[in-house]
Amino acid sequence: HLVWITAPLCPIHHRQLHQLLKIAGVDLEYTTDPIERLIRATKAISILMCMVLNALHEVRSPQN
Questions:
Q1: Are 9 and 18 in contact (CB under 8 A)?
Q2: What is the tens place of the pLDDT at every residue in 9-38?
């Protein structure tokens, strides 16, 4: 994790994010390797951004 990156999520979306991270094989365990921490954080951010974009898309064009 990178301490300067946080995302306030409700419990439902927090669980969803962790489920997606697990499915994607993103390891959130601490490592002393700063490059590996950055890689892991970037992967997690990418998945979070997909969640945000999907939510925006649903609001923009709701399914009827």
A1: no
A2: 999 999 999 999 999 999 989 999 999 999
